[in-house]
């Protein structure tokens, strides 16, 4: 269990859901973890469960100064940054694109898009000095095969995928690999937002377009993230990996 031995990974949105799954899985493989989340209760819980190999920060990814504080805490605790996982995300409720108010739209762009910019500005100089690193973003199948009712969320994830590919090309000479994951809807706290309402009928409707017949789980996403962040994927960059049970086929 040493695929990430001595690596230091920052994971945003790690207080629950996919981010929590990644934090726990990465720690199992020897990584030191920074559990960053807007919710301090969740972040502290996950870090405490992991133990001495983890610290937690309360981080609002929409704010650059909070990224700087998170990076400082990471360097103070572990001395380096090898992996930056942009996992924190936000969505409007499934419904008409005309019903999404401007404040919600701005929050979607701040969390799903601008946070990637903030993270890049904060960690790339550090990774460059270290001789390389990995940046991984949780995008979505919504950026590849958009569903009706999630237009502005879909668009933000399409942006994340394009940013990933462009960053990968530009940062390759610095030995910084950049990839993203495209999960299908998963068993997380955001599921009801994606569906609009959490009913057996609505769940069946969503599962019907997933050939393997189920939602994704945090472990599904964590295992894919682990591979992309490990040295096993050292020749993989610019990839938007579908973790979707066949949804995008």
Task: Describe the structure in your own words.
- The protein has a seven-stranded parallel sheet, with helices on both faces.
- The relative contact order is 0.15.
- The chain has helices spanning 17-28, 40-50, 64-78, 102-130, 151-171, 191-195, 200-207, 218-229, and strands at residues 8-12, 32-37, 54-58, 83-86, 133-138, 176-183, 240-243.
- Helix 1 packs across helix 8 and helix 3 (64-78) runs parallel beside helix 4.
- It is an alpha/beta fold.
- The model has no long low-confidence stretch (mean pLDDT 95).
- The chain is 45% helix and 15% strand.
- The longest helix has 29 residues, at 102-130.
- It has a single domain (8-240), classed as Rossmann fold (3-Layer(aba) Sandwich).
- The chain is globular.
- It contains eight helices and seven strands.
Short précis:
This protein is α/β, with parallel strands linked by helices. 45% of the residues lie in helices and 15% in strands. The chain has one domain: Rossmann fold (3-Layer(aba) Sandwich).
So what's the overall shape?
A: globular
CATH class: Alpha Beta
Overall number of domains: 1
The number of helical elements comes to 8
Distance between the termini: 33 Å
Tag the structure with descriptive keywords.
Rossmann fold; single chain; 8 helices; alpha/beta
């Amino acid at each position: 269990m040493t695929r990430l031995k001595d690596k230091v990974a920052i994971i945003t949105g790690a207080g629950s859901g996919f981010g929590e799954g990644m934090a726990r899985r990465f720690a199992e493989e020897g990584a030191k973890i920074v559990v960053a989340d807007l919710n301090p209760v969740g972040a502290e819980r996950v870090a405490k469960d992991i133990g001495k190999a983890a610290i937690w920060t309360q981080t609002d990814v929409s704010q650059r100064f909070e990224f700087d504080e998170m990076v400082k805490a990471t360097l103070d605790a572990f001395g380096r940054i090898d992996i930056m996982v942009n996992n924190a995300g936000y969505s409007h409720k499934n419904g008409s694109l005309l019903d999404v108010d401007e404040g919600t739209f701005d929050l979607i762009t701040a969390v799903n898009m601008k946070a990637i910019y903030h993270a890049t500005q904060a960690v790339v100089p550090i990774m460059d000095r270290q001789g390389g690193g990995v940046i991984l973003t949780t995008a979505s199948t919504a950026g590849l095969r958009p569903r009706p009712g999630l237009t502005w969320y879909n668009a933000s994830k399409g942006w994340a995928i394009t940013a990933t590919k462009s960053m990968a090309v530009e940062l390759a000479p610095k030995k910084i690999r950049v990839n993203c994951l495209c999960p299908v809807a998963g068993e997380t706290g955001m599921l009801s937002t994606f569906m609009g309402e959490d009913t057996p009928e609505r769940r069946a409707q969503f599962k019907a377009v997933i050939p393997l017949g189920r939602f994704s789980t945090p472990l599904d996403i964590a295992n894919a993230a682990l591979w992309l962040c490990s040295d096993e994927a050292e020749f993989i960059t610019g990839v938007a990996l579908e973790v979707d049970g066949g949804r995008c086929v």
